[in-house]
Amino acid sequence: MRVSVFGLGYVGCVSAACLASMGHEVIGVDVNQVKIDLVNDGKAPVVEERIGELIAEVVRTGALRATGDVREAIMGSEVSLVCVGTPSEPNGSLCTTYLERVTEQIGAALAEGAKQGGRHTVVFRSTMLPGTCLNLLVPILEKYVGGTAGVDIGVAVNPEFLREGTSVRDFFDPPKTVIGELDPASGDAVAALYDGLPGEVFRVPVPTAEAIKYADNAFHGLKIGFANELGAVCQALGVDSHQVMDVFLADRKLNISPAYLRPGFAFGGSCLPKDLRSLVHAARRADVSVPILAHVLPSNSDHLQRAVELVERTGKRRVGLFGLSFKPGTDDLRESPLVELAERLFGKGYDLRIHDANVSLSRLLGANREYIETRLPHLAQLLADSVEEVLEHAEVCLVGTRDPAVLSALPHGGGPLIVDLVRLPDAEARRAEPGYMGLAW
């Protein structure tokens, strides 16, 4: 394919050179004449493993050249990769100035008739927040081109997952390829660029592609921060943190796995809250600052509060709650977030009914009974014997269980409003219903 790459920094330079080495005809575009001259001389404008030899080779064969002329680049290509920077503003917000400018230039070049034949596809590879492409960049393109994105011009978002220092290696062996497509033809054009590369390809809506890069980097930062904080606590307690992490990393069932990484409701139970409090307390006693670990429980509490706020926004007063134990298939109520939720709603004066098939006040013993008598002493008058009793009572139902009896009884398109705390199996279908509210989706 004939490809133009806008921006010859790390991402653009590596993308241009690697695509050229795969057999594509690539034109690099930049406003910096020094970078243009370096590329045309077969030299890399960035320091990176293997990039110097790669650029020298593809320039020698004529597969890569560079220019500052946007019109020339558009005329000589069918796909444009936008790889300009999106730095932070002083207040932390995303700077889209360079994205807007290059989008205007590409749109103006297309409007001048520089592109002859076939539909041109503009692919945004720069990191940008969800909504940037559809709400900011697509209108700019449509304004300048005088056409409709997805019809007259292709648009896609293709985030990169290149690490500085190993970016060439990462390009040819990617963890995944993500294509946010405005329409199937736009996605096809991007997929063709990477044909033959390993790794799974995900073709998703444009905002999803924009968000994935942020999910990745936020988690990477969280992992590094977690490891460093835990290491500092271990050192203060006289423990070899690397031995601890070696064992931690060996657990591929719960630790290094998909476990616990699906958005849902708050966590609870007899272990997680207790152990987090104990670890943070030990860190404080040792004068070790652990802001990530110290904010896990407050974050959990904030997420629970979001459920309360969803109920408040309905303006309804009669509320039903399905589920009470902290985990399905158990009657353990200790530090259950659903008990906490019930307590907050009851304390705010809501007329509450609760059903959990695993929980019966007459069967509660020991610590379980003591916990409920302390946190929710009015539970007996709130418990309902059946799903139907709750549905008949409630104007709003919070679903905190996947009990088949509950799922089969939940109405569609009528009845009480549904606040989904667990992502119901038919959540996608329910999203179109006006009475459905999801907590984290």
Features:
UDP-Glc/GDP-Man_DH_dimer; UDP-Glc/GDP-Man_DH_C; GDPman_DH; 46% helix; 5-stranded parallel sheet; alginate biosynthesis; 19 helices
How far apart the termini lie comes to 38 Å
User: What portion of residues is helical?
Assistant: 40-55%
Point out poorly predicted stretches. none
Number of helices: 19
Q: Quick check: average pLDDT?
A: 92
Biggest beta sheet attributes: 8 strands, mixed
| Rg value | 28 Å
β-sheet strand percentage: 5-15%
Strand tally is 13
The shape is globular
Task: Look at the helices and sheets and give the structural class.
Answer: alpha/beta
Strand order in the sheet with the most strands: 3-2-1-4-5-6-7-8
Detailed description of the structure:
This protein is of the alpha/beta class. The chain is built from 19 helices and 13 strands. The strands form 2 sheets. The chain has an 8-stranded mixed β-sheet with strand order 3-2-1-4-5-6-7-8, with helices on both faces. Strands 10-9-11-12-13 form a 5-stranded parallel β-sheet, sandwiched between helices. α1 crosses α3, α5 packs parallel to α6 and α13 crosses α14. The chain is globular.
Helix-strand layout with pairing:
Blueprint: E1 2-6, H1 10-21, E2 25-29, H2 33-40, H3 51-60, E3 64-67, H4 70-75, E4 79-82, H5 97-111, E5 121-124, H6 132-145, E6 154-157, H7 167-172, E7 177-181, H8 184-193, E8 201-204, H9 206-236, H10 241-250, H11 272-285, H12 291-294, H13 296-314, E9 318-322, H14 337-347, E10 351-355, H15 366-375, H16 379-382, H17 387-393, E11 396-399, H18 404-409, E12 417-420, H19 427-430, E13 436-438
Parallel strand pairs: 1-2, 1-4, 2-3, 4-5, 5-6, 7-8, 9-10, 9-11, 11-12, 12-13
Antiparallel strand pairs: 6-7
Helix pairs in contact: 1-3, 5-6, 13-14
